[in-house]
Design goal:
Elements lengths: L3 E4 L3 H13 L3 E7 L6 H5 L2 E6 L10 H11 L3 E3 L9 H9 L3 E2 L4 H8 L1 H10 L7 E2 L6 H11 L3 E9 L2 E6 L5 H16 L4 E5 L4 E10 L5 E13 L2 E7 L6 H17 L4 E10 L9 E7 L6 H8 L3 H9 L16 E8 L1 E2 L5 E2 L2 E2 L2 E3 L7 E4 L6 E2 L6 E9 L2 H13 L2 E3 L5 H9 L1 H4 L7 H10 L6 H8 L12 E2 L5 E7 L2 E6 L11 E6 L2 E7 L2 H4 L8 E3 L4 E6 L6 E2 L4 E7 L2 E6 L4 E6 L6 E2 L4 E6 L4
Parallel strand pairs: 1-2, 1-4, 2-3, 4-5
Antiparallel strand pairs: 6-9, 7-8, 7-9, 10-11, 10-13, 11-12, 12-15, 13-14, 15-22, 16-17, 18-21, 19-23, 20-22, 24-25, 25-26, 25-28, 27-28, 29-36, 30-32, 30-35, 31-34, 32-33, 34-36
Helix pairs in contact: 4-5, 12-13
């Protein structure tokens, strides 16, 4: 058995590997860049080595530094995780040549599956069904256009060295083919250094079905059943589940057997995933599922397979890499219940899913139903612009698909992240979509329903009231009034917008400066309403106070400048939203304390306007 292990990765997968390794009594070594000096995986490991600047190309992608770190710390083996160097055959070979154990498949297996066209030819020879298409060397545009006509539109152009949706285009007619081909080739050349493409039939109701396979050095290969990863956004997986809805026993046997043949064809060792595309227009059928590609590493979504089989796939990897036989034979593996995983990202769906970076001042995960969280960050950590913005993988297991959906939704709804924006509310809506609930999902669902899914929800009255009581002093609060009901109501600012909230109960002796409202997976900041903050100033004294903590994005006036009522003074960014503060009346800028780029606290004086003329 391996005694010491270096993890050549970061984030949640590094933490995941460290946890299992330590449970097995294996000493762990982390590597980190400048940006990750205080990261969770660095804290968890027994030892950590700095390998370079923040950009991945100068740290996590520099294989020589990683191997040197393993040598310097006495690590016997290197686990690449996923992404970065995990499917780099040259790095795998360099690890082996350095006398270290590579926790992954043979370099030759990685090479064999690295190019989509070569892999498909290999699969055809092994009797694995492949999508109708053209895989040849002739890359002449007119020749490729002829092949597309023969296959029949719509077709899919794919970079042979591609991945992650890059170098991929759907083409619906011959008139669009030339432009799509040129665009695809340019993107492929820029992303992978290889502009060769293949063409295959585009499946109109596509489902993404993948099978977890595992091999050892003794010639054994097993599968651990299938996953369905059909809910995608721009070819990126959003929610994964196992098993696949609508998969009958005969179809499962056929697709899983094909996956095992695929792994055997490349003499596979370790964890791998065979990805298939299925035509779901008439349900899942064995003769309508075709090989797409193989990922020669552990997948992001491996926890759902672990949840339904009760196996630890990282432990399997470490045992296989140590030369052991697979822990289980095929007839010892079975499916128990249903599991789902959602990828919680630091991104803003309402703004085109732009990454949302910054400090995680609040980070609380929903823990209902004993769910599972895989994360690489902690409260107070920074979401960096240098890497994938994943905050966590949220995983739920249930006795049925319906129960798994309910439990995962509950966990996401109870998740609180502030001030960084997340896609949690988007995920909650996706889980509740009637087609998803019915198991009738194809890879185009989010593309068709995207507008409805990205609209931010409104907080419920109950959530507002609960948060508001954290802000109410026992002596009362400005803006209180009695309505006809008679019921006490308080006036507050919700992300800078004035709201009135019915209140009940009693205030607190020492109220908080702000409260976080969490509902339906969304988070809002609630602060007390003040005359100064409602429109940026009190009409009497002209003091413009910060309505909430934030960053001054721009200052549009200068001290001594004449301004008119309603004129823009400055812009404040808080909770990733911009708030414009304006002049309350005609006058001059008597005092200016705001500077672009500065961080300010709630109620900080930013500008003071005085009546008069300059």
């Amino acid at each position: 058995m391996i005694h010491s292990l270096l993890i050549a990765n970061r984030g949640e997968i590094a933490c995941r590997i460290i946890r299992t390794a330590q449970q097995m009594g294996i000493r762990t070594v982390a590597v980190y860049s400048d940006a990750d000096a205080g990261a969770l995986h660095v804290r968890m490991a027994d030892e950590a080595v700095h390998i370079g600047p923040s950009p991945a190309r100068e740290s996590y992608l520099v294989g020589e530094r990683i191997i040197a770190a393993a040598k310097a710390t006495g690590a016997e083996a290197i686990h690449p995780g996923y992404g970065f160097l995990s499917e780099n055959a040259a790095f795998a070979q360099a690890v082996i040549d350095a006398g270290l154990i590579w926790v992954g498949p043979k370099p030759s297996s990685i090479d064999a599956m690295g190019l989509k066209d070569a892999a498909k030819k290999l699969m055809q020879a092994a009797g694995v069904p492949t999508t109708p298409g053209y895989l040849g060397e002739n890359q002449d545009p007119s020749f490729l256009a002829e092949r597309a006509e023969e296959i029949g539109y719509p077709v899919l152009i794919k970079a042979v060295a591609g991945g992650g949706g890059k170098g991929m285009r759907r083409v619906d007619s011959a008139a669009d083919f030339a432009d799509a081909l040129a665009s695809c080739q340019r993107e492929a050349a820029a992303s992978f250094g290889n502009d060769h493409v293949l063409i295959e039939k585009y499946i109109l109701s596509p489902r993404h079905i993948e099978v977890q396979v595992f091999g050892d050095s003794h010639g054994n290969v097993v599968h651990l059943f299938e996953r369905d990863c059909s809910l995608q956004r721009r070819h990126q997986k959003v929610i994964e589940e196992a098993p696949a809805p609508g998969m009958d026993a005969a179809t499962r046997e056929a697709v899983c057997a094909a996956a095992v043949r695929a792994a055997q064809a490349v003499d596979y060792e370790g964890a791998g995933t065979i990805e298939f595309i299925a035509d779901g227009s008439e349900g899942l059928r064995a003769n309508r599922i075709w090989f797409m590609e193989m990922n020669t590493r552990l997948q992001v979504e491996h926890p759902v397979t672990e949840e339904i089989t009760g196996q630890d796939l990282v432990e399997w990897q470490l045992r296989v890499a140590s030369g052991e036989v697979l822990p289980k034979a095929q007839d010892e593996l079975s499916i128990h219940g249903w599991a789902m995983e959602a990828r919680l990202y630091a991104e803003d769906p309402a703004r085109g899913f732009l990454p949302s970076i910054g400090r995680l001042d609040v980070l609380r995960f929903g823990s209902a139903h004993g769910g599972r969280i895989e994360t690489g960050v902690h409260e107070g950590a920074e979401v960096s612009p240098f890497y994938d913005p994943m905050i966590a993988k949220v995983i739920a297991h249930g006795s049925s698909r319906e129960q798994a959906i309910e439990r995962l939704s509950d966990m996401l709804e109870d998740t609180a992240v502030h001030p960084v924006r997340t896609n949690a509310a988007f995920l909650v809506k996706a889980l509740a979509h009637p087609q998803f609930v019915a198991g009738k999902v194809d890879t185009g669902l989010i593309g068709r329903e995207g507008e409805a899914l990205v609209q931010p929800p409104e907080p419920s009255g109950a959530a507002l009231a609960q948060a508001a009581m954290q802000l109410v002093p026992a002596s009362g609060v400005p803006g209180f009034r009695l309505n006809a009901a008679p019921r006490l109501r308080g006036r507050f600012l919700l992300d800078g917008e004035t709201v009135e909230v019915p209140l009940s109960g009693h205030g607190v002796p020492q109220p908080a400066e702000f409260a976080l409202v969490t509902d339906k997976g969304q988070a809002w900041m609630l602060t007390l309403w003040r005359r100064e903050s409602a429109h940026g100033a009190a009409a009497g004294d002209g003091a413009i106070l910060a309505p909430m903590p934030g960053k001054v994005v721009s200052v549009d006036v200068s001290e001594g400048q004449q301004v008119t009522r309603g004129q823009k003074l400055l812009t404040l960014e808080a909770m990733k939203m911009e708030h414009t503060l304006t002049a309350p009346f005609d006058g001059i800028v008597a005092e200016l304390r705001a500077e672009a780029g500065a961080q300010v606290q709630v109620d900080a004086l930013l500008v003071r306007i005085e009546e008069g003329e300059a």
